Amino acid sequence: MGIEDFGSGQTQSDVLVVTTNDIPGYRVDRVLGEVFGLTVRSRNIGSQIGAGLKSMIGGELKGLTKTLVQTRNQAMERLVEQARARGANAVLAFRFDVTEAADVGTEVCAYGTAVVISPQQ
């Protein structure tokens, strides 16, 4: 597995997503409000058994890591879709929230503030 299997983040998009509250060189023209992308993934019994065995001897649980990266990327894609649908070209204060969902899976929520930005003159 290469680094791309474990990396995350934004691919080329018309909506810029940042974790900061502002973007150097840009001004916020309009705040459109909170946007989020949500996904819930159930646990795979095979990977759970493998993870249980691996946890006894130690080391990274690569299958679970890859699944979490894919899940976060899906949540982020949904956030970008929602921001775009509201007319935003950026999302500020981007964050992830990860919780257990009723003991059957993992809920991943990507959230932030949708804004319209323009370059400062």
From TrEMBL:
Domain of life: Bacteria
Family of the protein in this entry: Belongs to the UPF0145 family.
Originating species: Streptomyces orinoci
This protein's name: UPF0145 protein AB0L16_14100
Region forming the signal peptide: none
